[in-house]
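Q: Could you fold this chain for me?
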Amino acid sequence: MATPVTMPQLGESVTEGTITRWLKAEGDAVEKDEPLCEVDTDKVSAELPSPFAGKVERLLIAEGATVDVGTEIVLVTVEGDLEHEPSREEAPAREDVVAEAPTEEFPAARTEAQPVSEDGERQRVVAEVRAEAHTGGNGHRDIESADTLRLTRSSPVVRRLAAEHDLDIAEIPGTGIGGRVTKKDIESYIEEREEHATPGLQEEREAFAPPEELPETDEAPIQEREPAPQRGEVYEGDRVMELTSIRGTIAERMSRSVREAPHAWSMVEVDVTGLVALRESHKDEFAGREGVKLTYLPFIVKAVAEGLKEYPVLNSVWDGDRIVLRKRINVGIAVDLEDALIVPVILDADELNVLGLARKIDALVRRARSRQLSPDDVAGGTFTVNNPGSLGSVVSVPIINYPQAAILSAEAIVNRPVVVDDAIAIRSMINLGVSFDHRVMDGGAALRFLNVVKRRLEGYGPETSIN
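A: Sure. Below is the predicted structure, expressed as structure tokens.
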């Protein structure tokens, strides 16, 4: 009997995942912990390992489909059951009905109250419901079953959006796989409804709606929320890129950060001539001994961690009517993936020396670029360091990684003339900028923090120990 593998919860607040690519095909053998597919969530991209060895019996979800956590995505015949598996000719007729069902319909088949151990019976029930929904049964049951399937296809985000706008998901045409109603379907439906609304209807509703009956909510009133995005014209030759889960989450979080946190920004110039000399004299020996490259980022993160100890207000979050100062110093580092930006986190960065930070950063960057980060790798950040200097930037204004209170941007190190002791000298200079939440702090705190980081970096010289 084939055993289902379900969509895992890749993070504490993750409710759904997108299968971006299947790494195994039907009929392929799979070893335990061997990757089955690549999964995209709003937190991380990761490979999903098989929980057991066996053979891939059936792929239940198509590539590109988004399904809820707990949804069955693939059936695998466990290695020990292969020799006892009945042939298709010997299989009961009811199982044949399930086998012939279209693959894309399976996301709607999940029923929370039925345990995985009753897989065969549950699949038979699903087949019966599906048959009635598509072929008729009796008239009332047909409509009810179809509506139930459409509801189970919708994600928590879709159901929440529908509830906010008092919509019945069953009335909305779904463009997703198997008729799944997507977020875009909801937004398009709302936009179309507003365009065709009868003049004066909104005023009439407002006049008769009793204010005391409105539910209490911490969210902004519907009329104050951002309207559904207005799409522009697409001309011949244009290419349309659909949003990935990560790209969509970046867009939502960056918009929220700018919308909710009043950004302010300060920058200082730092003379890192001594640090450059230190790295140049140690980088070859360091790479040979440790197996990782010695970059400037570990030195910057070390200085940042020390600065956060002195000015913990930058290691905080705005929490409604109070400010929460985080005890742990968990520094996130922004990693460019060309098509996205992800921020793995160095937990307790203040407890590591430069050598430890270099090892940790190298491991996180490697896993990020190979799409092998775990949910724990991107959780718990309290402050973020952005490194656009690695791509040649000399001045940038980063957006705060909400709900954190601040983010530091390290620019490119460039040689330029500087006045030193009333004389002009060529020095290695870097610009360090901090964007901060002006609700949490004023410019003085941000600049004092920057000056601590500046002093630490300018304190390095060719003879400084890096252990």
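A (continued): The CA atoms of residues 282 and 294 lie 8 Å apart.
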